[in-house]
């Protein structure tokens, strides 16, 4: 394949982001027709990725890339193989209909343009995620899906429930993302590879490294939160607060599958170990059962579907966790089937909500006459979800039963879980697709009628696709399932699918069992609902509630810490700061035996001793001073003496600066003091004075000891020699200090003066804050005076 | 503080200090001095003038708000780094321009411009703090 085509792939991945920019303007200009135009973008992406189907099914893979931060090995690189191609096709294909659907669903909504933008951003993030090759690229897109789904779930931001759901989803999936980042960093550290394609070419490296366990746990942390595995399943149903197009897109077809995608992508690297085949089936199985049981309880169409999504994800994780080739084939097939029927059913639920005004399944009935097309789509999708022929769901169920049945160890347990889960799934499918449409017509808040073509196009096409995929089972297996399975197993796999089972075998018997059990349970639905509800009421506490308690706990913890650390008393801050400083200089010196040896009595001239004496006198004066002003001035004496010492020992620049700084600090301190108060210094108890004194003595002694220790080291003169030699020849200056400041290290100085400017602004702001209320009082007073004057005249 | 002697002397003292600060600034490259010290001297001059004659007269005398002077200094300092970019050298590489002016060698350079920037930054920031503190509602 030529470079030009590779570039197009990167464009295809990034195209949704461009569309997100354009969408609001397009919506403003084309109004209700905008969706038709905007849908061209995902349609084109679909068309582009469809071009890969042929080559990928012949076992080819592609790695288009552009440099991003090459010095860190981070590139915008993508990996196109069976797995990513099918995912990209699902995202862009379903995305096309979601855009159309959103055009109908939010028709006339004032924020429709923004909604399109969010959808496109999400689509781009998701495409980048499933095609990402570079681990860092992959991670960035991963977190981008969390952030964009936050925007989408919280789209209806005036409702508290939406905000909570959005925040919850962000906290859970974003937190999982951080775990994933840690996993990637460990992988890069353990293998030295940053590209997924390179990792996949030597799959056993991670398994054999000592870091396998932490990597495994961290990857699961990312995958389980994203794919809503138990006990992180709670955010997904809550996310149903989002408008239905979002639910249909994020929470059935694409985003929640990101975790499953990750597990599938990592399967050759991490899978088929004892740990993997134990942990994943357990979590997946539990999620499957919890999801379906919770789904049974619901009467809200969207919530029922959401909980079955949780269940389906559990089923997928369970199947991937078996690492058994036939079961993996079942997982891949089920993934395809689920995306098609769940996308369709969500849109159906949205249409029912949109056209009748309610989503409560107990308040719906007899809609088949009023909404024939929606009814047809719902039936087709529900049949696929139930695993009945002739739909892709049926084939998926046959293959996955075949896989779990043959698996060997744990086979009965896994098969039993799948059987129970599938029959409950059938119950929900029937409840969603049959209940609202059959029976006598029920009065609904709105008068029920068929929605516009924008609305029903999606579900109809998706459910028909589920039928087509089954009808052309052989081609589906060859073009989509086989290549994807090869990505999972790391070897080329051949998949041969048939719609009609050739002979009566275990899977077929299990299918019949599923159907029978499902029908029986459906007839008892009302009783089942009551049973689940009473059990849940008995348990009471759940992860959803736990999340609230967790958040509240964090808030109160941080409040407590803040109150402890930031009490608002300047004295405490100063004492802490200087106490830590003293400890930091003194403790290591004592611990590491870094104390200087006692220096010999220096041989100073009398005037040098005199200056030292003045400095000492200044200090004593500070200590005994009665008022603050005297203390400040005395401190100045000491500072000037130090400046003179600098001058005597050959540092005129330093001394010059010290003089000026000392003068200005005395002036400014005095000015500050006159603003505060000049009353006698303090009336603190002796104990407090002693503590402060000890800390000051500690800092002083620490600094003095450090200085002495440094001067007793042999002097490394290379730097001074360099500057002495070159300041004249390179920088044309004889004053080395100045040359260093403005020339050799000029960029540093630039930063420093920027800090000076900022500090000046901050101090100014602080002074203003203090004086503001007084100014206001003045204004009031003058206003009063003015009023009086007006009255008088 | 407003004794008659102080108030009479202060303007002259401040003017001399400003002059001296410019001298210190310009000779910094070869002798003790430079933008930072020069700036501190000038700021002290303004503070003294302010204590003696009131903040309002200082503000009148320097025309611009001290913080604008400071920002102007930062701007000049950054500007001094730019010429090297046109010569395809890295940012802030020093550029020198030497010519003879009435038998005197005059060296102009970007480090000098940079030092002037430092000077303005220091004058502006310190003076704005000092003036803001001196300023009382009664003034």
Q: Poorly predicted ranges of chain B (pLDDT <50, ≥5 residues)? A: none
Helix content of chain B: 55-70%
Q: Sheet with the most strands of chain A?
A: 2 strands, antiparallel
Shape of chain A: elongated
Number of helices of chain A: 33
Rg of chain B is 18 Å
Order of helices and strands of chain B: HHHHHEEH
pLDDT < 50 runs, ≥5 residues of chain A: 1-5
**Quaternary structure state of the chains depicted:** heterodimer
Alpha-carbon distance between the termini of chain B? Answer: 13 Å
Assess the beta-strand content of chain B as a share of residues: 5-15%
Largest interface: A-B, 43 and 50 residues
The spatial strand order of the largest sheet of chain A comes to 1-2
Report on the architecture of this protein:
The complex is a heterodimer of chains A (793) and B (139). By secondary structure, chain A is mainly α. Chain A has 33 helices and 2 strands. Chain A has a two-stranded antiparallel ribbon. The longest helix of chain A is centred in the C-terminal third of the chain and has 47 residues, at 746-792. Chain A is elongated, with a radius of gyration of 36 Å. Chain B is 69% helix and 9% strand. In chain B, strand 1 and strand 2 form a beta hairpin. Chain B has a two-stranded antiparallel sheet. The radius of gyration of chain B is 18 Å and the shape is elongated. The interface between A and B is large, with 43 and 50 residues.
